[in-house]
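Recap from last week: sequence in, structure out.
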Amino acid sequence: MRLPRIDDKNIDKVLDAVIRNTAVQGTLSIIFVTLAIVVMVAAVIVTIKAIRNGGGENTEAGGATGVWYMEAADIRVPALWDAVLDAVRLRGGLPAGLAARDTLRLEAGLPLCGTDMDATTTPLETGLGWVVKLEKERFVGREALAAQARSGVSRRLVGLVLDEPGVPRHDYVVWADDRRVGRVTSGTKAPTLGTFIALAYVEPEVAPVAMEIRGRRVPAHVVKRPFYRRAQQEG
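Predicted structure tokens:
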């Protein structure tokens, strides 16, 4: 499909054309690839004009929200949002917030950069050793990772399932008997599983464990990630 020149005046017509044509073609990849290109171009155009003009009748400028931490980086374009939402609904989709995304990635056992892994952790500790190719002669951090692989890790990121109700939170302490053995990095109630789950760094080979939640120790057990497995749940 050939797209006309895009600006903030004809964006609605262009997006409508994309939605109609791609819906007729019925190809998911075409819908989202084409729409992504249009949205990116349009968002850049509208954002630049909104910043230059200090807003406008079709935009709303405000403070930073969500995961964006740049001041005045929140530019809302209602017409653009409505068009994207219409395209998503054609495939039975619905808008989802940050918390919904976070519970999904936790059920999948996926560590979040900046929360479950950062400059103080290594791939070997996080359970991402499969991406480390020590047979390669040179790469940043090879010597440190090779040494850790030889000596073994002093902590590891594991999945925990609470045996009693309680919502795990970042930095909650993990205990084994009366010894502090780690800390929680992420936690939530898993909506698909109906259980309370967490990711935590703990000493190797510790079990059973307990998590300190609001002054009480809630028993938990270590499980293999991911928490949710589609074939297992649907089977």
